[in-house]
Design brief:
By secondary structure, this protein is mostly helical. The chain has helices spanning 2-8, 21-48, 51-72, 80-106, 111-118, 121-132, 139-155, 164-187, 193-215, 223-251, 254-258, 264-276, 282-299.
């Protein structure tokens, strides 16, 4: 009987090899550059079409693309209560965050200023994670928050003129990102990255569709710029960066992942100089250095 059991027992499935250490170490740097590029693409995209229309198109295309990827790769889809939590995360991190950010950029708020406001995400995440996740924040991490915050202010702290409503929208987007990050870490740590991110986009797309039909005149004025920015936002920012973000949230504490956002204002300013010819000020360079020091301090174990 034991021999028969041994002969009929199914062979163990080989487990996937973990990624090499250098690849895991490179993920944060790649994430920061790709995430920062979204602000440049948003500036170009909102010049060619209304912001909510751009957001709707981004979510709809990225959602379908990721759903196909999840289906082909056999990704398990969230069900029951887990699905409800994934939907909440998607509405916070996608609909609230980018609906507010893109509308602020479309209202004339420079992408660097939006990145500046988003740069305070680590502090807000740290506070929320300490209250709801029990993550301990060390003195060295708080020092990193202070240094990183100073770098954020220096990076894009020049004299800029903008409307109060656009600033309020940016802070609403910041709140959506921060609360969504902590909520995801608390309630959906076991969700598959591919299928859960697809759900994020698919539940957010109808919300943006209704809003663009209600609040905007959904008309594209420059299909070339719109198509180019949309392609970048969908393939790089929607699929690539959120897969990287979810991967890091599974491997690290939420407050450590949040410190990476200290780098985005300075990197955004650098990309704006390289891509659309905006001058990189001396304060932006100092901000980049300070932001990096802040991340190193806050992210060290």
């Amino acid at each position: 009987m034991q021999r028969d059991d041994l002969r009929t027992a199914p062979a163990e499935q080989p487990t996937a090899a973990p990624p090499p250490p250098w690849a895991t170490a490179a993920v944060p740097a790649v994430f920061v550059v790709l995430w920062s590029s979204a602000f440049i693409a948003a500036v170009l995209g909102t010049d060619a079409a209304p912001p909510l229309l751009l957001t709707f198109a981004r979510f709809a295309i990225a959602g379908v693309l990721l759903a196909v990827i999840a289906g082909v790769s056999g990704s398990p889809w969230p069900r029951g209560r887990l699905l409800l939590h994934v939907v909440v995360v998607g509405l916070l991190m996608q609909a609230v965050q980018f609906g507010a950010f893109y509308t602020a950029i479309g209202a004339g708020l420079p992408g660097g200023v939006v990145a500046l406001i988003q740069g305070f995400n680590p502090v807000l995440i740290a506070l929320l994670a300490g209250m709801f996740l029990g993550e301990k924040i060390t003195g060295r991490q708080w020092l990193g928050f202070v240094v990183g915050g100073a770098g954020v202010l220096l990076a894009v702290g020049g004299a800029l003129h903008f409307s109060a409503s656009a600033i309020v929208l940016s802070f609403i987007g910041l709140l959506g990102l921060s609360v969504g990050t902590v909520y995801q870490k608390r309630f959906t740590p076991g969700a598959d990255v591919r299928s859960s991110t697809a759900v994020h986009f698919l539940v957010s797309a109808p919300v943006m569709g209704i809003l663009t039909l209600t609040l905007e005149d959904p008309e594209v004025t420059d299909w070339g710029a719109f198509g180019g920015s949309l392609a970048w936002i969908v393939l790089i920012n929607s699929v690539g960066t959120f897969l990287l973000l979810n991967f890091m949230l599974k491997k690290q504490a939420a407050n450590r992942v949040g410190t990476l956002f200290f780098l985005t204002p300075a990197v955004t300013a650098l990309l704006a100089w390289l891509i659309i010819g905006q001058t990189l000020s001396l304060s932006a360079i100092f901000g980049l250095v300070l932001g990096g020091v802040g991340v190193l301090l806050a992210a060290r174990k």
